[in-house]
Design a protein that fits this description.
The chain is α+β, with helices and mostly antiparallel strands. It has two domains: 7-62, no CATH class; 91-251, ph1033 like fold (Roll). Helices cover 29% and strands 26% of the residues. It has four helices and twelve strands. It has helices at 52-88, 106-112, 217-230, 237-251; strands spanning 7-10, 14-21, 25-30, 33-38, 47-49, 96-100, 114-116, 140-145, 156-163, 176-186, 193-194, 212-215. The strands form two sheets. Strands 6, 7, 8, 9, 10, 11 and 12 form a seven-stranded mixed beta sheet that branches. Strand 3 (25-30) and strand 4 form a beta hairpin. The protein is elongated. The N and C termini lie far apart (67 Å).
Length: 256
């Protein structure tokens, strides 16, 4: 905006004319001599442009800058609050999640690094995204699949990922869980382990209608340990081992 030559009025120095304007400084020629001010801050009650249209443009500029500063402060405050929550969150022993992945959908999940919690199927929240309130930064999302034409007893573990370090399920209203950018495992056909092998139920295995179930940290530890060993002869072994050690560390448990 070019306001050089425009008349202004200052609360202390009186009337003057703008003689120069740079990115953050404005110079005004008064009867007492030239004065330099911070631009556009000086227009917050000290300097006024005689041209009303130009004054409105400066006012809009100030409001836009103040809004940007406010937004940045809100982002920084939110970041501080997230870091505080991460540092002080209580580790729950039943905050691990096991997901059912329909055949064919695993590709998209591994590519995007996200998984959906599905929707409530009854109650007053019916149709809304399911809130995974137990899932926190210490949580694993274990991905399982029942092969086409196979019984539930033959459900396989096809992969897993830690959730992002700043993810808290109760704050996620869209039901989307984002994977940790590093700690992920994808099992090939030869490495996939039988899921129900880790549960000693008297009744036949049954999944039900939910997209995911919670399970204990102890059970998840055994599954991740075996998954890591199943990858021992593959390129994923070192990253899988790092995944498992990270899981143990953040959950405060010993590796098997």
């Amino acid at each position: 905006m070019n306001i050089t030559g425009v008349e202004v009025k200052h609360k202390v120095f009186g009337s003057g004319t703008v003689s120069d304007l740079s990115e953050d400084r404005i110079t005004v020629c008064f009867s007492a001599g030239e004065k330099s001010f911070i631009f556009p801050d000086v227009f917050k009650g000290y300097l006024l442009l005689e041209d009303k249209n130009m004054q409105q443009r400066v006012t809009d500029m100030i409001l836009k800058q103040e809004e940007a500063v406010k937004h940045q402060r809100q982002k920084e405050q939110a970041k501080l609050e997230r870091m505080h929550r991460i540092k002080n969150f209580t580790v729950s022993t039943n905050s691990q999640a096991v997901f059912h992945i329909p055949v064919g959908q695993e590709v998209g999940i591994f590519e995007t690094g996200t998984v959906s919690t599905g929707h409530y199927i009854n109650g007053h929240n019916k149709g809304r995204p399911r809130i995974a309130d137990r899932i926190k930064p210490n949580s694993v999302c274990l991905l399982t699949q029942r092969p086409s034409g196979k019984s539930e007893n033959e459900r396989k573990i096809i992969g897993a990922f830690m959730v992002k370090e700043d993810f808290f399920g109760e704050a996620s209203q869209d039901g989307i869980i984002e994977a940790h950018p590093i700690h992920q495992m994808r099992m090939d056909m030869e490495s996939q382990l039988p899921f129900w092998h880790y549960f000693h139920e008297k009744a036949p295995p049954r999944w039900g209608n939910t997209v995911f179930k919670y399970c204990s940290t102890a059970v998840m530890s055994r599954m991740l340990s075996d998954m890591t060993q199943a990858l021992k002869e593959t390129e994923q072994y070192e990253s899988g081992l790092a995944f498992y050690h990270y899981f143990c560390k953040i959950n405060g448990i010993r590796s098997l």
